[in-house]
């Protein structure tokens, strides 16, 4: 029974710690894999400008190289990308995007003197199964699909019946085509080589609107979440000791009450031992307090007078008792 109580208390304690660790929000640009439960921190992959208002500074090498670069090959443009933050470079000619949003661009490319944003910053990586993905959305406008050749069969259900009386009818307005903006999808792969550096490569572009990249880095390999273990070795030992003490008292009380039919304080396990310990400490407390009372200042004048009166009274009582005894002895002899 005691073992059952111990296991139940241990299960409750472990579930409490796990819940507290899981409820704590994660830092930006971090994620936990739902399949392997590994912790991924992509913040070291982010390039920072030479100085920022929050006091963070990048290394001189990062400042010289700027953001991450990917060669476009047959796309006729090279790409500039940053992870979980805006690009380091200053943009001055971003197309189809408000100037207030230029500072939030995380990926772009240049053609001539024009810059095209292919996604705004996003600090929340996600998982698609086992794939670690980082999405950037809200870039420049995509080119219209009307300019591209498309061979689609005409639908007979959408044809209108036109007769001679359609002059009085309201003309139907054609729905406007929704604006599409450029987006970026970065698939992050693990590079187990400890000497490997983070790299980004261009994969493909669909309709000049969606761009796919592949990133390789040791930081995409994941690790153990350090914040999940909120207690150190001493704290873990303390929790185990506390659970053992609780099990000892709970199991002992149940045994003394149900088997030995004890009530009150006698339900405690080893009641005689605990009572002896209590008496020992209480006696020590009395001894210490009485010893300290001797060093306290006393009223000597009043104590002497009281002692003299007490001694005289005691002497008179003793004389009276002696006289009474002598009288009784004389009467007994007669």
TrEMBL record:
GO cellular component: endosome membrane; Golgi membrane; late endosome
Subcellular compartments: Endomembrane system
GO BP terms in the entry: vacuolar transport
Membrane-spanning intervals of the chain: 235-255, 276-296
Any coiled-coil regions, as ranges: none
Signal peptide start and end residues: 1-20
Lineage: superkingdom: Eukaryota
Record-given protein name: MRH domain-containing protein
């Amino acid at each position: 029974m005691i073992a059952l109580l111990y296991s139940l208390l241990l299960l409750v304690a472990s579930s409490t710690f796990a819940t507290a660790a899981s409820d704590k929000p994660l830092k930006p640009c971090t994620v936990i894999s739902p399949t392997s439960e590994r912790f991924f921190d992509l913040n070291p992959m982010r390039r920072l400008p030479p100085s920022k208002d929050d006091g963070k500074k990048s290394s001189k090498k990062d400042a010289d190289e700027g953001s991450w670069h990917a060669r476009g090959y047959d796309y006729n443009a090279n790409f500039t990308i940053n992870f979980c933050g805006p690009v380091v470079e200053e943009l001055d000619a971003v197309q189809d995007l408000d100037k207030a949003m230029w500072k939030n661009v995380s990926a772009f490319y240049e053609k001539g003197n024009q810059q095209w944003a292919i996604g705004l910053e996003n600090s929340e990586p996600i998982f698609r199964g086992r794939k670690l993905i980082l999405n950037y959305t809200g870039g420049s406008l995509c080119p219209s699909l009307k300019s591209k050749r498309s061979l689609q069969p005409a639908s007979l259900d959408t044809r209108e019946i036109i007769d001679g009386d359609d002059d009085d009818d309201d003309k139907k307005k054609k729905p406007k085509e929704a604006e599409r903006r450029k987006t970026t999808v970065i698939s992050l792969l693990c590079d187990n080589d400890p000497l490997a550096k983070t790299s980004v490569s261009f994969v493909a572009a669909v309709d000049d609107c969606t761009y796919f990249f592949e990133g390789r880095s040791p930081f995409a390999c994941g690790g153990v979440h350090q914040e999940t273990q909120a207690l150190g070795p001493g704290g873990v030992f303390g929790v185990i000791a506390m659970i053992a003490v609780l099990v000892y008292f709970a199991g002992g009380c149940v045994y003394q009450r149900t088997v030995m039919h004890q009530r009150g304080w006698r339900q405690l396990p080893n009641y005689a031992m605990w009572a002896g310990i209590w008496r020992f400490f209480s006696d020590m407390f009395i001894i210490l307090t009485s010893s300290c009372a001797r060093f306290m200042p006393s009223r000597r004048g009043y104590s002497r007078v009281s002692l003299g009166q007490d001694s005289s009274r005691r002497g008179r009582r003793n004389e009276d008792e002696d006289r009474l005894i002598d009288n009784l002895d004389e009467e007994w002899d007669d």
